[in-house]
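Worked problem 6 (solution included).
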Amino acid sequence: MYTNILVPVVFEHGNHGENSLKVAKELLDDGGKITLLHVMEEIPSYATTYLPEGLAKRQHTEAVEALRDMTGTIGVSTEIAVVQGHAYSSILEYAKKHENDCIVIASHKPGFEDYFLGSTAARVVRHAKCGVHILR
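Solution. The predicted structure is:
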């Protein structure tokens, strides 16, 4: 069905990334690839002076290791990417740059604030130039 699937992963939301990965595998054509993407939110420059030295590098390394653990023995071609930026815009930019034909993204149950501001998944759906599958 799809040949180049992007799966954004947020570690703070439980096992949604693993569920998204399973769905992506089902949607993937033979010979296709899945890219796991984690977006590290940018830390304002005024706050970085208060953080321990090397924290960002350690967090990046931990994210890469966690994504590798997720791929485990999935049995399909996978790539791992960790980028820094704002979640929804970084997902959209990555998908465009790497010509992803599908994004499989987990979404939490919307709260009252989401109806005014929009969750990351809602923004991705509204602005993506490719197919988007949302999991709850």
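Discussion: The mean pLDDT is 88.
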